Amino acid sequence: MIGKLKGVVDSYGDDFVLLDVQGVCYQVHCPSRVLQQLPRVGEAAVLAIETMVREDMIKLFGFAEDSEREWFRILMTVQGVGAKVALGILGIMKASEVANAIALGDKTAITRAPGVGKRVAERIVTELKDKAPAFASVEDDTIAVSQSVAENVASRPVADAVSALSNLGYQPAQASAAVAAAVKTAGEDASAEKLIRLGLKELA
C-alpha cells in the first residue's frame, strides 16, 4: 500500500494532480482545498496517500496532512458517505474544522460541502460525535454545552442562553463557548439572564 508520495507536479486535472515520482506519474485525487495549496507544475510536492483497492480499480487519494487522511477514513465509516462526499467535506474544511463542526453538532457547516444534504450531515454528526472531540481544537466544556443543547438534555438556563446568543447572530460554536465560560464564572445554578449577560461580555 502507498502511504506517502514525494515527487514533482506534472499536471493538474479537475479533481486530481499527476505526481511524477522518479519518472512514474501517479494520478492522485485530492480535496479542492488541497489542490489549491499545491505548488505549480514542475515543483516538488508531498502528499499523504490513501490507497483504495477494488476489483475493477486502484485509486489514490492525496492529502496535505496525515490528519486529513485520517478524517477521510473516518468520514467514510458513515453510511451513505463515500469518497466523493468525504473529499467534498475536506475540500471546504481542515481536519480540525471537521472535528469541531461534528463535536459541536454544527450540521449547517457540514451541509456547505457539495453533495451533502441535511440528512447526511445529521448522520455524520450523530455517528461521529463520540470520536470528534479527540481531534477537535475547541475546549471540552464548549463541546459539552453544545452536545447537551443538541440532545435536549441541557438545563433550561443553559439552553435558553445558547438560544438567545444564537438569535443575536452568533455562530453555534461561539454561543456554546460563551455560555460555557459563563457557567464557569457564575456556576451551574445561574439564571439564563445572568448567563446571557456574562456570555455577551465574553463575546465583546
Automatic annotation (TrEMBL):
Chain segments carrying region Domain I: 1-64
Swiss-Prot/TrEMBL keywords: ATP-binding, Cytoplasm, DNA damage, DNA recombination, DNA repair, DNA-binding, Helicase, Hydrolase, Nucleotide-binding
Region described as Domain III: spans on this chain: 153-204
Subcellular location: Cytoplasm
Pfam families, A to Z: HHH_5, RuvA_C, RuvA_N
Superkingdom of the organism of origin: Bacteria
Holliday junction DNA helicase RuvA C-terminal domain location: 158-203
Main location: cytoplasm
GO cellular component, as recorded: cytoplasm; Holliday junction helicase complex; Holliday junction resolvase complex
Keyword Iron-sulfur: no
DNA helicase Holliday junction RuvA type domain residues: 1-62
GO annotation terms (biological process): DNA recombination; DNA repair
Gene Ontology MF annotations: ATP binding; four-way junction DNA binding; four-way junction helicase activity
KW DNA-binding (keyword) present: yes
Complexes and interactors: Homotetramer. Forms an RuvA(8)-RuvB(12)-Holliday junction (HJ) complex. HJ DNA is sandwiched between 2 RuvA tetramers; dsDNA enters through RuvA and exits via RuvB. An RuvB hexamer assembles on each DNA strand where it exits the tetramer. Each RuvB hexamer is contacted by two RuvA subunits (via domain III) on 2 adjacent RuvB subunits; this complex drives branch migration. In the full resolvosome a probable DNA-RuvA(4)-RuvB(12)-RuvC(2) complex forms which resolves the HJ.
Role noted for this protein: The RuvA-RuvB-RuvC complex processes Holliday junction (HJ) DNA during genetic recombination and DNA repair, while the RuvA-RuvB complex plays an important role in the rescue of blocked DNA replication forks via replication fork reversal (RFR). RuvA specifically binds to HJ cruciform DNA, conferring on it an open structure. The RuvB hexamer acts as an ATP-dependent pump, pulling dsDNA into and through the RuvAB complex. HJ branch migration allows RuvC to scan DNA until it finds its consensus sequence, where it cleaves and resolves the cruciform DNA.
Family: Belongs to the RuvA family.
UniProt comment concerning the protein's domains: Has three domains with a flexible linker between the domains II and III and assumes an 'L' shape. Domain III is highly mobile and contacts RuvB.
Protein name: Holliday junction branch migration complex subunit RuvA
Organism: Pseudovibrio denitrificans
